[in-house]
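## retry 2 of 3
previous attempt timed out at serialization; input unchanged, resubmitting
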Amino acid sequence: MKTKISKLFGIEYPIIQAGMVWCSGWKLASAVSNAGGLGVIGAGSMYPEVFREHVQKCKSATDKPFGVNVPLLYPNVQEIMDIIVDEGLKIVFTSAGNPATWTKYLKEKGITVVHVIANTKFARKAEAEGADAVVAEGFEAGGHNGREETTTMCLIPMVCAAVQIPVIAAGGIGNGAQMLAAMALGADAVQVGSAFAVAAESSAHPNFKEKIIAAVEGDTKLRMKKLVPVRLLKNEFADLVAQAEASGASTEALMNLLGRARAKLGMFEGNMEEGELEIGQVSAMLGEIKPAAEILEEIWSGFLAAKGRLLEL
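## retry succeeded, writing output
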C-alpha cells in the first residue's frame, strides 16, 4: 500500500513512530525503520552531544529512512539543527513551536519537514511556510497537547479539508482498526506513540512501561493547561498538579511545582510517584511489552483485517 506519506519517506508501511521524550532513542527508531515503518529519534530529551550519538548509532543500525523530532522550544535548538545538517539527515519533524522559525532553513538544506499541529490554523501556517506534511495530533495523545482539546475523530477531517499537503493522524492510535479509521477520515499515514513507548527497544524505564500496561480508562488526564497542556498518567505528582489547578494556582506556581527534570525522573529514571509520566489515552488498551517489529506488524495486519471486515459488509 503506497500512500503520499510512504512515498514521501520511502517506507513500506504508512506507520510513523512518534519521537517521544525519554522513550525514542536510536534502538527504537532503528527497530521501527528496519520493520518497514519510519522510526523517529526524540531530540527533546537529549543534549546535543547525546543527540549526535543517537543519530550516528541509528545510522549504523539501519539502512532504512528514519527521522528526528525537534521541539522548537528546546533551548539548544540551533545546535540540534547544526547536527541534523552535519549528519546529513533527511527527515525532520518539528513540534511545540512556530513552523516559520526553522522550516525554510531546513528546506533549503534539502530536508523533508513535517510539523506537528493540533488545529487547522497551524496546519495552514505550516503549509504556507513550506512544510511537506503535518502531523494532526488529537486530544487523546500523550505528552504536549493542543489547547483546543479537539479529538482525533474531529481534527483529522478538518485538517484534511484545510490543507493540500499530506496529513499524518496521531492521538489515540495504537492498533490496526484505529489506523483504518484515521485513514478513512482522510489521513495518509498514522503516527503511533504510546504503543511504541512500551516496546522492548524503548528507552523508557521498565517501571514506566509496567505502569502504562497497568493503566485503565481514566488514568490519564490533560494537565498544566496554563503552561503547555500535557497528558499525564495518574500518580502523586499528577494529583498535586490537579489540586493546584483546582485551587487556581498561577502559572508561576505550576512552574515551581513542575521544577526541572520532572519527566526524566519519571519516564527515564523510574520514579512512578514523583515523576512526570506522559502517555496517551490508548495506554488503557496496551497489555504487553513486545519488540517494536511485532507491534508494527500487529498494527499493519490489524489494519488489513479491519479493512477486510468492512469490505464484507
